[in-house]
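Supplementary Data S3. Sequence and structure tokens for construct A.
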Amino acid sequence: MKPGAGLALATLFLLGLCVCAGAAAEEKAVLQWLGVAGWEIRLGRTTILIDPFLTRRSPARDREWQTDEAAVLEVIKGADYIFAGHSHADHIADVPFIAKRFGSKVVGSRTTVNLVSTAGVEPSRLTTIQGGEKLDFGDFSVEVVESRHGIPQGQFEVSETKEILAPPARLLGRHFVEGGSFLYLFTFGRRRVLHQSTANFLAARLPGLNPDVALLAEPGRGYNLKDALQALKPKTIIVQHFDEWRAPFSQALPQPHRRRAERFQRDILSVDGGINVILPEFLKTYALEEILAR
């Protein structure tokens, strides 16, 4: 064997392992819609949750929040990581219980971290974000992108962001303020999945993200759809957050909500008819590679 040939073969072998590992990561990724902007992503033995909310009722402003533990545990069997897009109740109200129950690591705003702390989750398991972070978890990575909240029904502009600056003694309904909004760009092998918890963007943050799959919220859109799609260039869009979050699954998709989602689907296709647009079903699983093969 010529000098250096052994080193070259070893290098090629290691590169092959890296390519195979990347391919395995994307082939193993399975997404499940939990309703609202909630998702479970299973990556082999790793379970990732995003904005999980299964209690499906509105909090009373001055009452202590109580998660419907039975409803959560009927669906959630484990959670290694939880990512919170913002801190409204329909995104994080169940996160303190889930994180405490399963020993999950939680990533979110200062407000999210302070509210999750009320459940006694260890500080070492909490990561506070501000936007711009690039987090490596071994078998997947996440880029945190600063964003903004959608426009609530009946308003014409985005409300001022409110925060919870310290853990409250008791978690009350009024503590679920926005706390800042973020996108998460997940990388699984060669594939990228973008999660948008609320229907808005900061346009300057979009170029270069290039997700294969974008999970986009439907209500209260506060951005130019054509400009956003041209910047993101997604292959597939899965519409989310179009259900009635204060109702059980069996009653959560009345016709007006379905029509809104279908209208959003048509709007997307009118901009780019080549995008695969999916209106998901509650708790149905979607294998990442199968989605992108369509």
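Construct B, processed identically:
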Amino acid sequence: MVLLLMGWRYFLSHSIVRQRQVILYKLESEIFGGGLCSPTCESKDDSWMGRAGGRYAENIMTSQMDPARRVAVYCGSADGNDPAFRAEATALGVALATAGLGLVYGGAVVGLMGAVADAALAGGAEVIGVLPEVLAGNEIAHPRLTRLELVDTMHQRKARMVELADAILVLPGGYGTLEEVLEAVTWAQLSLHAKPCILINTAGYWDGLLAFLDTAVEAGFLKPKNRELMRVAADAEEAVGMLVAAPR
């Protein structure tokens, strides 16, 4: 009887650990994409967790050394209070189309997102939108894109946009825009990609963020070489010019 009870306790504890592994796997798979090894597969180090780099789908986190063909644009779903914000978004769409570059963005028809997409489409550019399915039903999906991709989560949206793009430009926006660019530049800091990340500092909008990054360097939380990963352009024309002229 004692042996039976000991065996039963072992079985229960092992099952609980296994369930925790499966739950953690599912959470990380949703966050980091399909690059994870499942709890039942075998990796080179016999650990279902795998190596840190393996948590990112290989075709998403690559070093981009080819000339830019598509550019991801992060920006707000609102227009902002200054008309200069929407005007700059329109100018960026025009500049991308003129340079022969495609646009990858969040897929919405509203705010700065809609403005940059409309201008790029009007100029004949390829425009790909990536939108979480939960938002598509709220009448914000752009109806005239070259292609609209629906994904399950916000995490998948960000990963897919980076996968499709060769560079990242950032217009004014709120929490979502800030989170997107900081995650992208963090991936660059970790050498998961080498795609340019450029803030378009319309009307000094990003001055506060840039000051914060300088403070982080002074406080010893950010290395100067990594501070340089966040580049800055005064306007859309300069930002696109930086991409076109960048040595590869």
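The first helix runs from residue 2 to 32. The mean pLDDT is 80.
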